[in-house]
Give the backbone structure.
Amino acid sequence: MTQEDPRILKLREMRAKARQGGGENRIAKQHEKGKLTARERLDQLFDPGTFQEMEAFITRRNDPPLNESTETFLGDGVITGYGQVNGRTVFAYAQDFTVMGGALGEMQSHKICRIMDLAAQNGSPIIGMIDSGGARIQEGVRSLGGYARIFKRNSLYSGVVPQISLILGPCAGGAAYSPALTDLIIMVEKQSYMFLTGPEVIKSVTGEMVDFENLGGAAVHLTTSGTAHLVARDEGDALTLCRNALSYLPNNNVENPPVIAPADDPLRMDKDLNQIIPQDTSMPYNMHEIIQRVVDRSSLLELQSAFAQNAIIGFARMNGSTVGIVAQEPSVIAGVIDIDAADKICRFVRLCDCFNIPLVTFVDSPGFLPGVNQEHRGIIRHGAKVLYAYANATVPKVSIVTRKAYGGAYVVMSSKYLGTDMTYAWPSAEIAVMGPEGAANILYRKQIEDAEDKEAERKKLTEQFRAQFLNPYAAAQAGYIDEVIEPCETRAKLIAALSALREKQVSTPNRKHGNIPV
């Protein structure tokens, strides 16, 4: 029997050592916490047998000021490479918590930057799996420089290739800025944490007592801060969500989103939509139900679902093609736009515009949320972000006014003269500067004051104003609405419009970039 070449044996030994990460004991501790290892995560993300690892033998440098006694590990605490996700090339990195708690050092950042550069050069998505205690203290400024190099690439490649961050453990301090710069953040309940300053620092500086979960857990970032887009029950669910999210996105900014074989009739008409808007305009209804009935069945992937719930954003499919959905939810504070809703809508509109995803907007908003708090916190500036995003978006844009579209809320929500291509209205639509009660009080003030029964006169004039001006036909006659349609026709009309707009091209002024009111 021929003896094995010792050089081959050495290679196999090195590969085996690299696969061990921090060693069996630390892997066991990772499993005891209910967490997968970095390699197990990559195996679940990629199509079986397609992941190809890069730079597996890199180790940290041993020259000063590093501590010579510190153990070195092959791969330096991160696994990088590429493979196939649903048959499409994707580049990824996964921090290995079994190696120095996943802490980032100079060579780890080198590996991450290298894979990001390759992704951008080849026009493929980047997936980052974050599970790290933060900067590697013993590497000092080299570690900080490593973060800066990653942040720069997050920024440079924003809008070039999709970037998705999976937070699968701690993500503390400056490290949190990298996910914040990416397109989507997915967290895991009771396992993911993101914050700039930890509980101990907060206690020492402000005296506030808080634990990791209540400071920066998944629930906090989904409901309160709006930082997380999707939250999963466990890691397996998070990786499935990531694969699903990728299925709506193109590989890069010069490709169109993927199209799947439609499983739903494009001409399907849901007669129940004709009765979904209450006759009483003060009564709420469920906009989610409308969206679900209009888009391809079971295709809506809602983002930030528990944050600013008066607004709805998400990906869906229409006749197999990806669209971005933006809407108000009338059952939550009447669908008014507040600061959080404005930020939520703006960022999503810009994401869709980055990656050639057509926008479908369902409008039912009585205006911007009034109040001293909103005004002092800058509702003007935040509301202007929505206007800016829609006005600058060059993708196909279609809007449907289902009920109220008053004042500034009408204007900013994909109105016709912001550049929306097709504007539809349901017969229940009310498009006006303000609601009928306020308008009647202003327009007919003297008539109301002179009446014997002021309340009866106010009510009569309010209804008169509603009948004359608060209907879609007045807007259609003025050219602000392209067509008034039956609600049950919405799906077929949208699919026809999106098909007609597929080859849309827009020339924009030559500039470095605009100055969005952040």
The longest strand covers residues 163-172. The mean pLDDT is 92. The chain has 20 helices and 16 strands. The two ends are 71 Å apart (CA to CA).
